[in-house]
Amino acid sequence: MFNIGPFEAVNWNKPTSDLAKTFWDQQWKQMWFPEEIAVSKDLKQWKDFEFRDTYTKVFGGLTLLDTLQTNIGMNEIARYHEDLQEKAVLTVFDAFEAIHAKSYSYIFTTLCNNDEIDEIFAWVKKNEFLQYKAKKIADIYSSIQENDPESLWKAMFASVMLESFLFYSGFFYPLYLGGQGILRNSAEVISLILRDESIHGVATGYFAQNLFKKFSKEKQDELKVWGYELLLDLYENEMKYTDDIYAETGLSPEVKAYVRYNGNKALMNLGLDTMFPEEEINPIVMNGIRNEGSTYDFFSQKGSTYAIAKVEPISDETFNFDFLKK
Amino acid sequence: MKEYLKLNNEVLNKYSSTGTIDLQKDKEATRKYFLENVNVRMRYFIDLEEKISYLMEEGYYEEEFLKMYSMKFIKKLFKYAYDYHFRFPSFMSASKFYEGYAMKSRDGKEILEKYEDRIIIIALYLAQGDEQLAEKAVHHMMESYQPATPTALNSGKKARGELVSCFKLAMDDTMNSIAENIGYCLELSRLGGGVGTLLTDLRPLGDPIKGILNRASGVMPVTKLLENAFSYSNQLGQRNGSGVVYLNIFHGDIEEFISSKKPNADEKIRLATLSTGVIIPDIFFELMKKDKDIVLFSPYDIYKEYGKRMSEISITEMYYELLDNPNIRKLKRLNARKLYTEIKKTQFESGYPFEIFDDNVNRVHPLKGLGRVKMSNLCTEILQVQTTSIITDMDKPNEYGLDVSCNLGSLDIHHATETNNFEELVDTAMRLLTNVSQMTDIVNVPSVAKANKLMHSVGLGTMNLHGHLVTENILYGSDESIEFVDFFMEALNYYSLKASMLIAKEKGETFYGFDKSEYANGQYFEHYIHKQEKMPTEKVQKALGNVPIITADMWKKLKKNVMKYGVFNAYRLAVAPTGSISYIRSCTASIAPCTERVEIRDYADSRTIYPMPYLNNENQHLYVEAYDVDSYRMIDLYATAQKHVDQGISMTLYVTDQWTTERLAKLYIYAWMRGIKSIYYVRQRLQTLEECVSCSI
User: Least CB-CB distance to A181: which of B604, B657, B696?
Assistant: First the structure.
């Protein structure tokens, strides 16, 4: 993996991966920065908000997961992944993870004072469930070996678990509140993060599937068992974590249903069978994810649906409208 | 959690998996909303008399207009309105009305008005004591006429904002004028207005001041001043002020002006909240077609040489004269295609600038005898002549020119086709709009007040086209849809002109400069009188309902009357983008295609799910979303409507991220060729990951 030489240059003119360019384009089109969203508009509501403790813990937990994903997850996977184009895509994802981790701090700085912020970060360090999942995933990331596709696949599996599954116990709350007009701007930040995470989950899952195909049938079965066991382990921990942070709000059952729904989605990203039964998800939370092209407000400051232009010169042909003649 | 929000959101429960919409949930949400949020907050009155006198005595309603009517008449009017048994057709319409429009107690807790009450108060207020007009106003507003938000919101209230909210100002190339106009912007923004400012006449960066070269700072610092003025004057923090600036594409500062909306522009020139628009004469497109360079000019030179401002000449007619004249500096040469590509690029990335096709506007301008239309407003549908004020030193009086305030209203096309008397509907709408113009006096902006007094301009428009087409089983963009628009808009044009003529006849007064207009010399009617008579196809005839077909003979007769009695309103028609008011009425916006069959709309208060009007699981295929409508057919439809509209139509273009700048340029060029006058935003839909993975596999 670490070439002594000759070094190979990434050649985007010759596709080596089916979808690398699609993922690359889509991710860059979604470029955003937290500072573009006026979280300070939430301040007034924040002062009277009842469940501030739950809210900050939710964000504290998310910060830890994104930190993990920036510093170890995407980094390690990119490092050991072979295809140079896909490697580039994973590196770009990594940059976005760093933006996500920073954006929670942006929300904290806007809403909380320094003591409160220190308190949250201290809580992150000592919450057993949070530490448990972080350690579990980090261990898998750090066990990747050179020239060992199996350990790489496991890391990708863990990464998809993190991005398509474990984040959602946290995402639930801001989406749930935002849809009701509470702390809407923080929710806007979350929906932008979610938009990125869903590409990361799909892309990493897709790369993992390609890797998976190359294993023998026996190996595949073995890995599947390993995967489902990991998922169950994480799931049990996630249920406890949910009870722990949502205790005050009475929302635990709804959050859990949402976590299961996303557990199934994570498995689908990896090309595996789902394991939780279908159940009803809070409609406001569901519509919160769907707001991809939600209707543009002409008086708003920034339309989230504008992106980078594809430039092509105007030519004589531009003035030819013969194609319209029937 | 609020039960009605949950129910409203449940409309989409099965949408992504099965494509079906649960409309029953929206009905339940509306019902719940009334039970939980409206009925409990509605203040109870023993009877109407108690209600009216309470609202007057407590200073909620103005007394003066109510005193113009007898209590007997007011009672009759209330009964008349309530006999319509109005019900809100969607949760969106109900919540939008009660959150935004209904009168509430000062602490915001009690609701003091129902939908019918608001309509009656608007009618009584605008009719100014004319019982007959008040009655007609209630009738038509209960059916299909909707005044624009500022009129609907403020009519009759004692503590109220203005009835109009959209303005255009022309800035002159002097420090006095710049300062004066910035003051106007502060003032108008305080009143809640959106303001358009023309910058074409300002000398560009590096031009001489007092004959010394390289002294002028150009247009961009002025735009920054304006941007700051609007964000300072923000209606008690409720809404950021909004403004747009317009510049001619041949102006020396055009490149910086275009770049200013790029998200990555230098902070010194970047305009974060101010909108921009570019004025483009025909000659630009001609040079671009031939792949030529264009030359940028300075308005300073033009004024010195010809005694006319840059906005007062037709660049298309004067271009080669300007090139040949050695006293006119050629500031810069730019390749037209490259410049236009740059504009398209900025439009993809920011939605701006708007474009106004100068010659398409002025070629058919009925008041060309009075002067040129130099710019548009914040929504690009207002196109009226302006003359620049001369702002002098403080010790001399100013000479005020004509600026613009626009006062708008819209017809719900669907209900307009069902009304028993279309002529009376349009006549009533025109009279209400005319009264708004006569009741408005923006004293702190004399050029606006002066033009309003002289011109009585209004802008009647339409909405719910797509909704109506769906009920008639007609696809948006089809030949039938375009034919429908042709007949409908011609009838609207005819009856609005007839109404304005009748008002002139009754008052014995026309707008200022009528004698120089194309109405006075009959030119305006030429193509209508010599048109080829045609009958609508059966399907279109049915879709038109009670809207009459206008014959050449009818136009001939109208021409005679107009030439005899004159016209009261200098401008009559303009089709606005209709945001909030179409939500209240459960209409599709303007004459635009819907952007989503079911809109997910985020407001400050909550996320609202809004299924398009008349949508059900059987007619979904007729609600083709704007991004999927053939853009060329959409432009054909707008171009057809535009033939019958004396001002403009706010037109947004819809593209996906698969489009290139070249493809977008082609669409704009087509719009220009078809005689479209203005293009508002470009809206882009980002593909979702599912879509782009599925199309690449």
Answer: B604
CB contact under 8 A, A26 and B240: no
pLDDT digit string (tens) for B601-659? Answer: 876 567 888 999 999 989 999 999 999 999 999 999 999 999 999 999 999 999 987 89
**Do both B596 and B662 map to the same domain?**
yes
CA pair distance A306, B685, nearest whole angstrom: 8
Q: What is the pLDDT of residue B635?
A: 98
Q: Quick one: B177 exposed, middle or buried, by C-beta within 10 A (0-12, 13-18, 19+)?
A: buried
User: Which of A18, A286, A291 lies nearest to residue B602, judging by beta carbons?
Assistant: A291
In this structure, are B448 and B579 located in the same domain? Answer: yes
In a domain, B300, yes or no: no
Interface with B, mutate which of A27, A294, A306 (most B CBs under 10 A): A306
Q: Tell me if A261 sits within 8 A of A63, measured CB to CB.
A: no
**Cβ proximity of B650 and B680 under 8 Å:** yes
Instruction: Tell which of A45, A182, A274, A310 to mutate to test the B interface (max B CBs under 10 Å).
Output: A310
Q: How many CB atoms lie within 10 A of CB B206?
A: 15
**Minimal Cα–Cα distance from B685 to chain A, Å?**
6
Of A15-29, B487-501, B633-647, which gets the smallest average pLDDT?
A15-29
CATH code, A23-291+304-324: 1.10.620.20
- Tens of pLDDT, residues A55-97: 999 999 999 998 988 888 888 999 999 899 999 999 999 999 9
- Catalytic residue flag (residue A241): no
Residue-number span of the structural domain to which B478 is assigned:
144-164+407-587
Residues of B in contact with A303 (CB under 8 A): 351, 683
Q: Where are the alpha helices (DSSP H) in B610-688?
A: 631-642, 661-673
